[in-house]
Amino acid sequence: MLVGSVAACGPANQNSTVSTYAVGSQGYVRYGTIVGMRPVQVAGTRSGLGTTAGAVGGGVIGSTIGGDWRARTVGSVAGALLGGIAGTVVEEGVTSGQAVEFIIRSDDGPDQAVIQTNEQGLQVGERVALSYTDRVRIARAANAPPAGYSPAGK
User: Fold this and answer.
1) In this predicted structure, what is the pLDDT of residue 142?
2) I want to staple 84 with a disulfide (CB 3.0 to 4.6 A). Which of 4, 40, 55, 123 is the partner?
3) E strands of 43-132, at which residues?
4) Closest to 50 in 3D by CA, of 4, 87, 8
5) Which CATH number is correct for 26-42+97-146, 2.40.50.100, 3.60.21.10, 3.20.20.70, 1.20.272.10?
């Protein structure tokens, strides 16, 4: 139960997940080409939520051990300590993951580095759209203008 409750608090480490604040927000899109990429490890969080949930759960379970009040008190304290440690480890584990650092050569600006997951299987040389909303995201640019394209009059 403890592992499930802490795991449910972990973010979905996918680029297709947006925050509730991003819904209805306006942003802008620019185009570029992937010129480099490398895998990166995303460190897990230690918000204290896992520690707290583990300590509470461990304390409750530990308090059921033993017959008299002294044994239950010792069980409760030991359970809270062990549960807190376990909760910290679980939280860090479920919030860590793998991602990719993409180096993008923008059509109209400096090169940019964007770190995100790679569900689309993007590769070096592909044209991408950089979407700037609640955070920067890249996606395969279907029907994007070719590199170096400039609309008439600009």
Assistant:
1) 79
2) 55
3) 97-106, 112-116, 127-132
4) 87
5) 2.40.50.100
